[in-house]
Every structure is written in C-alpha cells, then in structure tokens.
Specification:
The complex is a heterodimer of chains A (381) and B (305).
Chain A lengths: L6 H17 L4 H4 L7 H17 L17 H13 L8 H14 L2 H13 L4 E4 L15 E5 L2 E9 L9 E7 L8 E7 L5 E5 L10 E11 L3 E2 L5 H12 L5 H18 L6 H29 L7 H23 L10 H9 L9 H12 L8
Parallel strand pairs in A: 1-4
Antiparallel strand pairs in A: 2-3, 3-7, 4-5, 5-8, 6-7
Chain B lengths: L6 H14 L17 H9 L12 H13 L8 H5 L1 H4 L7 E5 L7 E2 L6 E6 L2 E6 L18 E2 L9 E3 L3 H33 L1 E2 L2 E2 L4 H27 L2 H26 L10 H11 L6 H13 L1
Parallel strand pairs in B: 1-3
Antiparallel strand pairs in B: 2-5, 3-4, 4-6, 7-8
Helix pairs in contact in B: 1-3, 3-6, 3-7, 6-7, 6-8, 6-9, 7-8, 8-9, 8-10
The chains are: A alpha+beta (381), B alpha+beta (305).
Chain lengths: 381, 305
C-alpha cells in the first residue's frame, strides 16, 4: 500500500493547476459562486471546456480507443478534485466526461456514438438527467413518464422534476416507462431539448440560480432510434452509470478546502484559539479525510479492474457526513458567511447540502449498505 | 496512491489467519471479562509478527494490518505497543509494553503485570522501567474492560531515559491505538450482524427492521473509514494523520458500542455472548491519550497551528 501520490500523479495534478491558473479569469472566485448550472457559469463552461479539450485535459482518463489517453481512474480522480475545488469551471459538462461518455460508449448504437460523443470530446455539449418525478424520487422505479412507440416514433408524455441543467441542456438522458413491469418497464430515450412539446420551468432553490427545474413533456415525438439500449434495459444502465456518478464529484475535497478556508478566517479574527472551535474543526477534518480514504478505496477497485459494488454507497455516505459537518461548522462559528451576498463558504454550503440528496439519497445508500455490504436479511416491504 | 494489499502483506495476513484459527472461537460459558492466551502470544512472538515494523519490505502499514487483524480475536493480545512503539524506544524491552502519559500515571494500564515494561511519555521525555510487584496495586479482578488492567501504585526512583523524540512516540502510539480500534470495530460489527440476522422478534429477523438496518449501515461506514484512516496514518507518518485517525476511532467507538449493546438487548448484557470482549476494549480505548478531545486538539495543532 502506498498513500502518497506518485511523481507522475503529482505532475498531472500540477499540470491541471497550472492550466487553471492560466485560464481562469482574475475574478473567477467571485464568478464561480454562481451555481454550476447558472446561465453565467454554463456559458463560461462552454468556452472553458473547449480550451480543456484543446489542452488534452477534458477526458485524459478515457481509454485510447475513445480518444482519451488511457490514464486511468487515479487521474480521473485528480482531475475531478482539482476542478471541484476550483468551483467546477466545467459546469454541467463534468457529467459528460464522468459517466455520459463512458455510458454512451458501452451501450450506444454506432449512430448515437457518432452523434453525441464528438461534441462531448470538443467540450461543446451539455446534458441533463431526466430521472426524478414528482411521485418518483427515491422510489425511482415508480416513474410514470410514458413513451409509446407508434409508427417508428416514441411519443412521450409526463413530467420530470429537480432536474439540474435542464434550462440550458442540449440533450436529456430521459427515463421513460414503456411497460408497467416496474424496473423492467423503464427505457432510456435520448431527447434533444429543442424538440417541440418540451417545457422547462425553473424552480427557485437554496442552491443558487438556474440549478433546479421541472420539465414537462407533452406529446414529445422522437424517432425510435433515439432509444438508448433496449426497451426495459434502463435499470441496468442507470445502475452502471450511478456507480460512476456517486464517486464522480469528489465532494470531500471541497468540504476540506472550505474547512481550511473557514479556519483561516477564524484565525484572522483571533477566533481560532478557543478549544471548542479547534475541537469541532478537527472533527470535521477527520470526517473529510475519512470520506477521502473511503472514496480512494473504491477508486483502487476500479484501478484493479474489479466491479464497483455497494462500497461506493459507503464512501458516498461518508461524504455526506463530511459535507454536513463542515456546513454546520461554518454556520456555528462563522454565521456571517451565509448572510452575505457571496463567499467561498456560501458557495460550498450551496453545493454541500445537496450531497445527501443527489445521485441517490443518503437513506437509499444506507439501504444498499445494509443489504449488500453487511448482507443483512432483506427488509420486509 | 496504491491501496491494494501487496503480496507480502497478503501473505502475512494469511499466515496470521492460519496461526490464529484455533483462537478465533470463544470458549462458551467460560468467558471471563478479560480473555488472554499465553500460547497465542508465544506463537506471535515466535513467528515475528510483532517485529514487522523493522522489516524493510513490510513496514508500518503492514504493522497496522497485523495489529488490526489481531484485535479481531476474542483474546486480548498486547500487540499494538509492542509492534509500533517498542522498535523506536528500544527493540529489546521486555513485553508486554504499557504506555502511560506522565500526567496520567493513575490511569488503568492495559497488560500491566510484574515483568512488563512501562514506558512513560511526557515533558520529561521518554523513560521506562520494568514493573515489579511493589509497583503494582492489588490486581483488578473486577475490571469491566475485557483487557487485563492494573494500576501503578509507585514507580522506581530512577527510570531509564531513552533518547527518542517524545512527539514521535506519541504519534506511533496514536497509530497503534487507531489500528487496534479498527480491528475491534470490525469484529464487534461482524458479531452484531450475525446476531441480529438470526434473532427473530415479531416473526422476523431483527435485521429486517429499518430502524436497525440504517444504524448498522452507518456503523459500517464509520468502521470502514476508521480502518482506512488508521492504515493511512501508518503510511504517511504525519502527526496530523495520526491524531485524526485516533480521533475518528474514538468517535466511532462511542457511537457503535452503544448501538451494538442496544441491538443485542438482554443478550448484550450477559457474558454468554462475546460482544463485550470487543466493545469494552473499545470503551477503554476511548480514554486512551486523553480521549477524543485531546486527539482533536492535537490534530488541530498539526493541521493549522
């Protein structure tokens, strides 16, 4: 076992930092306090990701046959850490390189790969996930947005909610119901967001402008070739994607960075001498580092070519604990940080409070750990 | 970064597994509060398992893996201090090794007995002596802690001074305790999971109730991360990592010991189930080095000054 980064991994991290230092504007820290799905950051990301692509650091972790450098999971992790700590200048495009691209490669038709992968590799596309519905959040398998195949076209009717990036996305990775057979009746359709019949409405939120939407589908018609995978294959594909997505955002790094920032602010005001503050800060650091090592243990499995299972839920829950602790620390000892118009700590709070809800709620992670890590007998339903 | 076990580490752990197999079960209805086994201890010494720190291709991470593994056994083994601290202070000190802070000489000392080495750490540096009958108060037959413990009633007038850095000894002590706690946490969790999966109430296994499942799942998250923080602290040799690892272990111990005894109900109060062997060791470890508040302050000093 080796807990230090290799020389090559350190060099890769510095390459990204150097790129960020050279290519982010001087007012970036203030600017990045816009939510990752805000119009301002989305517009910025469209230019920034093109530069990343040109510099070869948009998707260097992808396999060579996909146009990447085949650098592997540790480099993907380092890339994600540096981007997330910096306030995620890729905006919603982080999803493209984390899981949409690899999922397209694994399950897409040649036509779908040709149509969608190239814009991703140029840093020019933005996707949204049409998963949750008003009556299907954690119970995703009860979703009702219906797709009916008629004369070679799917006609889609229904509603999605809490959809990030929907306001500006080009394409929706949409879960639809094609039969009443619960999980086996769900089908993925890739829907261009400019298709007639789609209405997007923004929902005001705690986490910033432009992040949360509801999306209505009224007789939205797409060709049968827009189906992704087979009818009824969505559950398998989404399970594969979410295992990547749960580790996709290295939230523990931003939590730790926010904690360090909070400590520096407290020190600057002579408020870090009190033992009560120091003890709570250390508890937060322990939770951040605990989440970090739990995440790294899962990345190692990916490096070793092993299937990622429920341990990703354990790492995710550790991350939720860290995010919660740091958010609460800031409010308890620096309450002014959330009262002002903008600050790094407010930005962290707005991103951190999502950890227990996005990519499967914390309670769903606990269900998975209980059943698949601890192998407890199944719960009665 | 490389978090898989290497071949040497896997071999060491496999060897311990086979050596410890005869000691993995608990003698039913013969469970005293503090179980020890001299044969197991001798076998560990004979096979060099407590000396892995000094072996170049093994080193501190392997030492942490060994301590974690041994802590899972129902028998208490003085492995942590011998494995981590003794090589730095003086590799030939007689075992068992008892570590005590200079300003907490009145604490219950694990494994203290005539012939043991007591290492005293504090502002006066690192000093040691061999414990004799006269130094030890009457044996504690009624300890609840599942370790053999005793109290010092006096110390020799002259102690042997060791020219080692007290801060480094404290760091290794924290790593050693975090690794031991990781093993105890793992064994206590496994023991509880087995019980609640078999025990039925209301016509179904206790483990099918979500109130219990979610708490056990949270306990798994803590247990898993204590394991990784302990190994990392061993590997990086940073003061901050050592303090965070023991802090997290002591926080986790407080939480899970309560949960597991609750989940076992009446059985968890008896000595017919071995749960207490791990939980009451954990409880004593929550007091080690002044407890979690002291680890937190040490971590804050190391991380932020």
């Amino acid at each position: 076992m080796q807990f230090e980064w290799t020389v090559e991994q350190d060099a890769f991290r510095h390459k990204i930092r150097d790129f960020l230092a050279s290519n982010l504007p001087d007012d970036w820290e203030t600017f990045s306090e816009h939510g990752p799905a805000s119009p301002a950051l989305t517009a910025f990301a469209r230019e920034f990701c093109v530069k990343l692509a040109e510099a070869g650091i948009l998707f260097p972790h992808w396999p060579i046959e996909m146009g990447g450098e085949g650098l592997g999971p540790w480099e993907q992790q380092i890339l994600a850490e540096e981007m997330w700590i910096a306030g995620e200048p890729r905006g919603g495009q982080y999803m493209n390189v984390n899981w949409i691209g690899p999922t397209l490669e694994r399950y897409g038709t040649p036509e779908q790969k040709a149509r969608y992968l190239e814009p991703i590799t140029r840093g020019e596309s933005l996707w949204c996930q049409g998963f949750s519905e008003p009556d299907a959040g954690s119970d995703l398998a009860s979703l009702r947005t219906r797709a009916v195949l008629t004369d070679g076209h799917y006609v889609i009717n229904g509603q999605k909610i809490w959809t990030s990036y929907a306001g500006l996305a080009d394409t929706c990775f949409l879960l639809t119901r094609t039969s009443d057979d619960r999980k086996k009746g769900i089908t993925i359709i890739l829907v261009p967001m400019d298709t007639p019949g789609i209405t997007v409405r923004q929902i005001p939120s705690l986490i910033g402008e432009g992040d949360i939407h509801e999306v209505f589908f009224d007789d939205v018609t797409v060709p049968e070739t827009a189906r992704f995978g087979q009818e009824g294959q969505a559950w398998e594909i989404v399970a594969y994607s979410l295992r990547n997505e749960r580790l996709g955002i290295p939230r523990f790094t931003l939590a730790r960075a926010a904690l360090d920032r909070a400590v520096q602010m407290l020190k600057g005001q002579e408020r870090f001498r009190r033992e009560a503050v120091r003890i709570e800060a250390a508890r937060c650091a322990a939770l951040c580092e605990a989440a970090g090592t739990a995440n790294y243990a899962v990345v190692q499995k990916r490096v070793d070519g092993l299937a990622i299972g429920a341990e990703s839920s354990s790492a995710r829950y550790a991350t939720v604990m860290a995010e919660r602790a740091v958010c609460e620390f800031v409010i308890e000892f620096l309450p002014e940080a959330l009262a002002g118009a903008s600050s790094y700590l407010k930005m962290h709070h707005q991103r951190g409070i999502v950890a227990g809800v996005a990519a499967g709620s914390a309670e769903i992670q606990l269900n998975i750990i209980a059943s698949d890590v601890l192998e407890l007998p199944r719960e009665s339903r | 970064m490389q978090l898989s076990l290497n071949e040497d580490q896997q071999q060491v752990l496999d060897f311990i597994d086979s050596l410890a197999r005869p000691y993995a079960g608990v003698p039913l209805h013969d469970v005293s509060l503090a179980l020890e086994n001299a044969e197991l201890d001798a076998a560990l010494i004979e096979n060099g398992f407590l000396d892995v720190m000094a072996v170049e291709e093994l080193g501190p991470v392997t030492a942490a893996l060994v301590v974690e593994k041994l802590a899972r056994l129902p028998f208490a083994v003085e492995a942590a201090a011998s494995t981590f601290v003794r090589p730095l202070v003086a590799p030939d000190l007689p075992r068992p090794i008892c570590l005590v802070e200079e300003d907490r000489m009145g604490a219950p000392l694990r494994f203290l007995r005539p012939g043991a080495t007591v290492i005293v750490i504090g502002p006066s540096g690192v000093r040691s002596f061999t414990a004799e009958e006269e130094h030890i108060a009457a044996a504690q037959e009624d300890t609840l802690y599942a370790y053999p413990v005793a109290f010092l009633q006096t110390t020799p007038q002259t102690l042997t001074t060791h020219t080692v850095d007290a801060a480094e000894v404290l760091r290794l002590w924290r790593v050693a305790m975090a690794a031991e706690a990781a093993g105890l946490l793992g064994a206590a969790l496994a023991s509880t999971v087995t019980y609640v999966s078999e025990r039925k109430q209301f016509g179904r296994p206790l483990a099918t109730f979500q109130g219990m499942r979610h708490r056990l799942a949270e306990d798994q998250v803590l247990t898993n991360s204590v394991y990784w923080l302990a190994l990392r602290a061993a590997g990086t040799a940073q003061q901050g990592d050592a303090a965070l690892a023991l802090l997290h272990a002591q926080e986790a111990a407080r939480r899970v010991c309560y949960d597991y005894h609750q989940f076992l109900g009446g059985m968890g109060i008896t000595l017919e189930h071995p749960l207490h062997l791990w939980t009451y060791r954990l409880k004593l470890l929550t007091a080690e080095l002044g407890g979690r508040g002291e680890q937190a302050l040490a971590a804050a000093d190391a991380l932020w000054g």
